[in-house]
Structures are given as C-alpha cells and as structure tokens.
Amino acid sequence: MPQLRLKHFSPLILEPLNLVIDEGETVTLSGPSGSGKSMLLRAIADLDPHNGTARLDDTAADEMPAPQWRRKVGYLPAESSWWEEIAGQHFSEAPQLEALGLAKTILQSPVAHLSSGERQRLAVFRMLQQQPRILLLDEPTANLDPHHTQLVEEWILKYQQHSGAPILWVTHDPQQRQRVGMRHFEIHDKQVMQT
After folding, report:
1. Which of 37, 67, 70, 79 is deepest in the core (most CB within 10 A)?
2. Helix axes 146-163, 116-129, angle to 10 degrees
3. Residue 91 confidence (pLDDT) above 90
4. Which of these CATH numbers, 3.40.50.300, 3.40.50.10860, 1.10.10.10, 3.40.190.10, describes 4-194?
C-alpha cells in the first residue's frame, strides 16, 4: 500500500508543506512559471536540497541510500536526459510502443532525430519500466497533441491502477486537472495551497 507523506517539507524557496497522497490517488499541482513546482518534485526525488521529511509508507528518504529512494520514486522531468545516441539503448526490454502511438522503428532512431513529443512519450515508458512506487510527473503531456495526451494519461493511470502508485502531477491544463486529479494544489507566494 504505497503512500507518500510530506511533513514540514519544502525545497528552499517554498514554505513548509504537510501533504499525504494515498495509494491510488492523483494530486495535481499548478502555479506560475518559476514558482517552484519543478523544484518541489526534484526535492521529493531527493535531487535538490530541502527541509523536512518525505516518507514512502513508513520509511523516510534519509533512512535509505539515495539511489534506493530514487528507484522507488519515479520522477519524470519536463525535459528528460538521454545519455545514449540511439533511443532503444535506453530500454532493458522493448516497450509497448503502439500503446502511446509510436512506431517500432523509433527504437533504431537517434535520439537527436526524435521530436519533443516522441522523446516525451519514450520517457514515460522509461520511467514506468523501473516500476516506481510513487510517480512525480512534471507536465508529462506538455508537448503532445490531444490524441497523444489521451494515450499518455490512459497509460499512466493504467499503471496506477495496477500498482496503486500515488501521483503528484504538475499541469497547467484545467481540463487535465479535472480528468486525472482527485485533489488540486496551487503555488502562490511560496505557499502550496489546496484549491
């Protein structure tokens, strides 16, 4: 029963936050550019400095080695990194490309030749292949048209249904918030507030 608990938690530019995201729950987050949304996700993933405590179930992030925490917490940045030249070299097993509207030949393509939307969809697969217990999603459909947005939403929520993963999902799209979110928070003046 995965559960994310934040207690007096904050990256250094935000006021402390207390938040619990339960098994199978999706919480959406919005706010102006530069308000700290990405920094909050990176802090939860233990990639940026922060105050307070993040817990997965009953175990705090600082009670386990950082690489172990990062395997359990799936963080999808707005712009993912690609360290191999060919797309398929980033996957230990072949992803189900058709589910996100991608051709099988894409795995033989140089990453540099892929569109931002293709890279974004491949990044979703790459993150979920690690079978994380929690998902931290930084605008995972920002570069996608409505059809591919729907495919990505369905794939992520299917994973959640199977795994019970709590999700913190950054989005600027009010309609997407209604489709995927159970609760919504916004960042205003360094405070994360439920709306």
Report:
1. 37
2. 0
3. no
4. 3.40.50.300
